# Entry
Amino acid sequence: MSRLRGKVAIVTGGNAGIGEAVAKAFAREGASVVITGRRQGELNRVVSDIVKEQGQVLAVAGSVTDEAHVQETVRQTLQQFGRLDILVNNAGIGEFGKRLHETDDATWAQILDVNLNGVFRMTRAALPQMLKQGAGAIVNISSIASLMGLPSLPAYAASKGALDSLTSALAVDYAKDGIRCNVVNPGLIDTPMAAPLMSNPEQLEPILSCYPIRRVGKPEEVAHMVLYLASDEAAWVTGGTFPIDGGITIS
Ligand SMILES: NC(=O)c1ccc[n+]([C@@H]2O[C@H](COP(=O)([O-])OP(=O)(O)OC[C@H]3O[C@@H](n4cnc5c(N)ncnc54)[C@H](OP(=O)(O)O)[C@@H]3O)[C@@H](O)[C@H]2O)c1
# Structure
């Protein structure tokens, strides 16, 4: 398979969960993939998996909250692979189970700094090379939390709502430069982020009963959608919002 042959992609948070599945799917489709994340051990694990399958991969450890790391990621990408075609802004965190009056300043600031400001920083660093190439595809990983009211995740919902709006603004600003920007909104996906819920049937069952397709999603299922949006198959698709959610947002 070679839907991304010759392309170079950065996937933030590519060392776990959805980002790992995206990085592996991209590498299988012929892309050279740069993965980021704070945990070096998890980066090494994913690099080793991709190399075993003859994929091209580079890991750059660090946080999307750190401008120097973000700049270094793009610098190393260009040094190693010579171009940048795709950016997947996937790195994200959440705090679940508290309402707004129980949310402290530090939690609010941290969630916004990773989920929204991190996307701002990484996208700002990637755009000059995409502008130079006259092409690019950006895929932001949001959540159904931006599309429907979900309980007890106010900072997370606000960060993802802003991310959806940012995606529309980018799509309009850069369409003339050949750069597309779309957002994917997953429902509950079986990743480390969802692990506390997955291991608690009493909490999980009532949530699953709201899903027309009564199961959690798989990271690989999200990766299929991201792969399409990142590829030239989606050449006429920009500014789109793509729920992948077992039908919950229409039920
Ligand atoms: N799982 C779900 O149910 C679900 C549903 C909707 C949307 N999402 C979204 O999907 C994305 C991926 O989530 P996931 O479920 O795969 O979560 P996950 O398993 O917890 O993985 C999160 C990834 O983000 C990285 N990360 C976290 N903070 C970072 C930072 N400051 N800088 C760089 N990387 C950072 C983590 O690596 P390090 O810890 O090593 O930094 C990890 O690779 C997130 O944006 C999340 O909001 C998830």
